[in-house]
Amino acid sequence: MTAKSPTAQEAVLRELRADIVLGVLAPGSQVVQESLAHRYGVSRVPLREALKILEGEGLVTYHPHRGYFVMELSVDDLTEVYRLRSLLEAEALRAAVSTLTDEDLEQLRGLLGQVEQSSGEGDLESLTIANRAFHFAIFERSAMPRLVRVLQQLWDATDVYRAIYFRSEVNRARIDGEHRHILAALDARDPEAAIAAHEVHRSHSVQVLGTQLAE
Amino acid sequence: MTAKSPTAQEAVLRELRADIVLGVLAPGSQVVQESLAHRYGVSRVPLREALKILEGEGLVTYHPHRGYFVMELSVDDLTEVYRLRSLLEAEALRAAVSTLTDEDLEQLRGLLGQVEQSSGEGDLESLTIANRAFHFAIFERSAMPRLVRVLQQLWDATDVYRAIYFRSEVNRARIDGEHRHILAALDARDPEAAIAAHEVHRSHSVQVLGTQLAE
DNA sequence: CCTAGCAGGATTGGATCCAATCTGTGGCTA
DNA sequence: TAGCCACAGATTGGATCCAATCCTGCTAGG
Questions:
Q1: Nucleotide nearest A64 (Cα, C1')
Q2: In a domain, A2, yes or no
Q3: Cβ-defined contact of B84 to A146 (cutoff 8 Å)
Q4: A6–B64 C-beta distance less than 8 A
Q5: Which nucleotide is nearest, taking the CA of residue A45 and each C1'?
Q6: pLDDT tens, position by position, A142-199
Q7: For A71-114, how does the pLDDT look when each residue is reduced to its tens digit (9 = 90+)?
Q8: What CATH number is associated with residue A199?
Q9: Residue B109 contacts by C-beta under 8 Å, 6 or more apart in sequence?
Q10: What is the distance of C-alpha A6 from the center of its chain?
């Protein structure tokens, strides 16, 4: 049903994530394996393996003999994720900034260009992807693979909210400016400035999302 | 073959973890599903689901159409894990120490008693369990479930080494003392002292393990 | 002698089928 | 009327079977 993938579990994993993030699967609702497998055009086996991954990421919960349920994220959970991101991204930046090469910065500039283009066009799908590519290109320069993995999980867990955040044009304009601050700090090879810029970046989004989540 | 469990995947998961931790499954070697499934007396389905969980925890790696391989941890990986633990456990302690009740402290004293008993008897299996129970009883008081989850993963990833560490009587004697320092800091409701005590606790083990790992 | 290509076996990925467990409903009893 | 038990349907858990892919060793050609 989607782009080809070496294995069905991967394809299902992507679709499942998208469906959870976009709210197609209501938070708190049970994941009925049969119907979902049918929806994705596969059997239950690869679906279950994908669910096990999502369980590890905290996007779904699992109760033996009762099944999987879409996680519902609370304000507390959101703030906890951002607190952890704050700690861990600071560490990644400390490790990354000092080792940045000129080629790295050139690459980051290119990625940022894609972010801004998607942002301008209002293409939320590609904006989400480009934004993530930009930030993780930085984090990966830390040469701390396990740290990057944990950060991936934390980002995955809040993709739902990021999509909401990007919907507003005001927010999109703001992140463009914040991204340029980040890049400037990286250009100057100033770790503390980069950490501070990220702090601002995150605190804005968690603030907006927190109030929006309280409805 | 083991204690009963509501589902086979859970039982397999425990056995698999033990076999990896104890080195029965050599690091770097491929996990041949058929033979392992036979070994545990189940089919390949629950085994694969258990492997997906371990993949999420970083105990095994997965390559599509090639299978799962037991992760081999390098010194770099070990130090990275401990660096992350340092950051995250400090955060957990900051959140936990201030809210500790007298009952909590009583419970911790009980858990520590079990640790020391197992340590004295040289029962490594129950020592591993009791040690973990003690430390996570503290972390869980942070009321930050996601943080606890990440810490669980980090601990899981280095269980292999912890088992080695406990083997030496000298090390066991040392951790008993370190645990008492931790408990004293908690008794005093002094977060910074607790963080410092943990720092000492970790740095000893990472130091010993690091040299031992370099063989 | 070295390399490309091609079987054959081994191993994983996925689908289908059956067993085990849970959930909800209705009837019975105190 | 409230509570408990039994039964039926739904749903998950696990086993077996088949298809797709990968790896190994051999062979043929340069």
A1: D12
A2: no
A3: yes
A4: yes
A5: C14
A6: 999 999 999 999 998 888 788 788 888 999 999 999 999 999 999 999 999 999 999 9
A7: 988 889 899 999 999 999 999 999 999 999 999 999 999 999 99
A8: 1.20.120.530
A9: B183
A10: 23
Same domain for A62 and A139, yes or no, is no
Contact assignment for B53 to A58 by CB distance below 8 Å? no
B82 plus B148 within the same structural domain: yes
Range of the domain at A107: 75-213
Do residues A130 and A25 both lie within one domain? no
Long-range contacts of B136-140 (CB under 8 A, 24+ apart): B137/B104, B137/B107, B137/B108, B137/B111, B138/B92, B138/B93, B138/B96, B138/B108, B138/B182, B138/B186, B139/B89, B139/B92, B139/B93, B139/B96, B140/B96
Neighbours of A175 (CB within 10 A): 20
Distance from the Cα of A169 to chain B's closest Cα (Å) equals: 31
Strand C, nucleotides covered by protein (CB < 7 Å): 11-17, 21-23
In-domain check, residue B3: no
- What is the total count of domains within chain A? 2
**Residues B103 and B23 both lie in one domain:** no
- The answer to the question of residue B157 being in a domain is yes
Q: Is residue A1 part of a domain?
A: no
| Whether residue B46 is found in the same domain as residue B137 | no
Check residue A22 and give its pLDDT.
Answer: 79
